[in-house]
Amino acid sequence: MDLTTLETAQKTYEAMDLAAKSFISLNNLWVLIGGFLVFAMHLGFACVETGLCRAKNATNILCKNTLTPAIGFTTFALIGYGLMFPALNGDHWILGKILGFAGFGIHASGTIAQGATTTDWTWFFFQGMFAATGGTIVSGAVAERIKLSAYMVFTAIFVMFVYPIIGSWGWGGGFLVSESFAKIAGSVFHDFAGSAFVHTVGGCGALAGVIILGPRIGKYVGGKPRPIMGHNMGLATIGVFLLWLGWFGFNGASTVNTDPGLLSLVEVNTMIAASAGILGALLMSKMLLHKPDLSMVLNGCLAGLVGVTAGADCIGIFPAVLIGFICGVVVVVAVLFFDKIRLDDPVGALSVHFVCGILGTLAVGIFSPYYTFLAQLIGIFVVGAVAFSSAFAIFSLLKITMGIRVSEKSELKGLDIAEHGGEAYSGFQFFSNM
C-alpha cells in the first residue's frame, strides 16, 4: 500500500468518534488474541501426537509440529492468502490471485476497510494461523513412518494451494455462498469456524497419507490390529487441554467482533460440546472396550470441539450438547472401524477431524433454522472430494519422486535416531525397542 493511501485511511480512522474507534479497536484486539490462541494450539497438537506415539519417535514428531506453523504461515503469506480471499486484492485481483500476499498487489494494510471490524493485517494473521492447522492434522495420522522431507513438501503444497482454494469457495465469497447455490440447495453453505474448511480438509489429507503410506511395522499381525501404546498419556492430556483452551479463540474470534450475545453463545457452545464429547466417548469406550479408555476420552473432547465448530454461531445450547455427545460416541466407533479396515492412524486424527468434521458440518443443516441439510451435504461432498483427491495426488507424486516412507531399519530403530541423530529422552535407549 502506498503512503498516500495509508495516510488517507489513517485520517478516516482519526475522524471517527470515540465510540466507533473503541469498538473497532476492541474487535481488532480480540481477533488478534484469537490468533494467539490458535497459534498455541500447535503446542497442543505437538503434545497430543507425541504422547500418543512411541518414545523413539518423539523428537521427530516435535520437529514436525514446530515446522508446520512456520511452513504453513509462510506459504499462506506467499500464495494462499491471495487464493483464499481474492476480493481483498482490490484492483490487482488477477495479479494477487496468482502471486498471493507478499507485496504482489494485495490490498492489505494496517488500516480498517469500510465496514470491516479488523485491520487487513489482523485478518491475515488470524487466517494464517488457521491455514497452518490443516497441515498439523495430517502430521499425527502419518506419524512414526513418514520422511520428514516428504512431510514438509506435502505441507507446503497443501497449505499453499489446496486449503486456500477450497476455503475460498466459502470464506472467500465463492460459489458455496452464492445466490445461485442457494437457489439450488435452499440456502448457502455454512461453516462458521472450520469443521469443513479446516478439519475435514485436513482429515482428507490425513486419509490420503494413511492409505498411501500403509500401516506401521507390527501394527497388524495375522490380519488383526495390535495395540501400539503411546508412551506418555500425561503429555497427551496436557495437549488436549491446550487445544481445548485454544478452541475458545479458534471459534470465539471467528465472530470477528465482540458482540456480547454472539460471542457468549459461541463460547458456551464450544465448552458444552467438548464436555458432552468427553461423556459420549467415556460411555462408548466403557460399552465397547469394557473400560474407560483415556485416549478415547481425550479424542472425545476433540471430537465434540470439531463437531460444533461449523455451527457454533447458529445453534442453541441443547443442539450443541447433542452434537458433542454424538461426536464423542462416534469417534470411538470410528477409531475401532479404521483399525478393522487396516488404516493405521496412531493418534485418531481420521476419526476426530475427518469423521467428526463431516458430522459437524451436516449437523448445521439439521439443527440450524437458517441452513438446509441439502446445502450442507453438497458443500461437504465437494470439499471432501477435492481435498482428498488433491492430497492423494500430492502424496502419490511425492512417493514416485522422492519417496515418502522411511526404510524398515529406520522405522524399527526410531525416527529420532534415523532422521535427527538424537533421542528425545537421552540415556533411555531402551525406549527405542518399544
What does this structure look like?
This protein has 434 residues and is mainly alpha-helical. The chain has 16 helices and 2 strands. The protein has helices spanning 3-14, 18-52, 58-84, 93-99, 120-141, 148-168, 179-185, 195-213, 233-252, 260-289, 294-308, 317-340, 349-367, 373-401, 408-413, 415-420, and strands at residues 220-221, 224-225. It has a two-stranded antiparallel ribbon with strand order 1-2. A hairpin with a 2-residue loop joins strand 1 and strand 2. The longest helix is centred in the N-terminal third of the chain and has 35 residues, at 18-52. The radius of gyration is 22 Å and the shape is globular. The protein starts with a helix and ends in a 14-residue tail after the last helix. 55% of the residues are buried. Mean pLDDT is 89; it is low at 1-6, 90-108 and 430-434.
What distinguishing features does this structure have?
single chain, 434 residues, mainly alpha, two-stranded antiparallel sheet, 16 helices, 69% helix, disordered N terminus, disordered C terminus
Biggest sheet, in brief? 2 strands, antiparallel
Helix/sheet category: mainly alpha
What is the topology, as strand order, of the major beta sheet?
Answer: 1-2
H/E topology pattern: HHHHHHHHEEHHHHHHHH
Q: Ranges with pLDDT <50 over ≥5 residues?
A: 1-6, 90-108, 430-434
Percent strand: under 5%
Helix content: 55-70%
For the terminal residues, how far apart are their CA atoms? 56 Å
Average pLDDT reading: 89
Give the helix tally: 16
